[in-house]
Amino acid sequence: MNVLRLTLFCTIALAGCTAASPDLEPLPGSLTYGEKAASRRTQADPGTMIQNRFLHQGTMVYETYEVQPDHSYKLVRRSIADTWPPG
């Protein structure tokens, strides 16, 4: 019975890991804010990761974009610094 419970728990835990995260919406200062996805293009190879950082409402925001096959950007990750300015 304990093996069955452990298996069920692991299955549920792993199912949560594979769930797709919702698309991030660009903030003012994001590379794609206020643009249609196809309007910004780059010569970088598809799959290349591009970093961007900016201040948004007094906090430092770090974003990562992935270059898509059509050479547009897709926002894939965002993190926000706990404190700003550093020091």
Describe, in plain words, how this protein is organized in 3D.
- Residues 1-15 form the signal peptide.
- This is Transmembrane protein.
- There is one protein chain.
- The chain is an alpha+beta fold.
- It has one domain (23-87).
- Helix content is 18%, strand content 29%.
- The chain is built from one helix and three strands, in the order αβββ.
- It has a three-stranded antiparallel sheet, with no helix packed on it.
- β2 and β3 (73-80) form a beta hairpin.
- The longest helix is centred in the first third of the chain and has 16 residues, at 2-17.
Summary?
The chain has 87 residues and is an alpha+beta fold. 18% of the residues lie in helices and 29% in strands. It contains 1 helix and 3 strands.
Keywords:
flat, Transmembrane protein, alpha+beta, 3 strands, 87 residues, single chain, 3-stranded antiparallel sheet
Strand arrangement, largest sheet? 1-2-3
Instruction: Tell me the strand percentage band.
Output: 25-35%
Helix content: 10-25%
Number of domains: 1
Q: From the structure provided, what is the oligomeric state, counting identical versus distinct chains? A: single chain
Task: Note poorly predicted spans.
Answer: 16-20
Q: Supply the number of helical segments.
A: 1
Distance between the termini: 54 Å
What kind of sheet is the major sheet? 3 strands, antiparallel
Overall spatial form? flat
* Element order: H for helix, E for strand: HEEE
Total beta strands: 3
Signal peptide: 1-15
Protein name: Transmembrane protein
Keywords: Signal
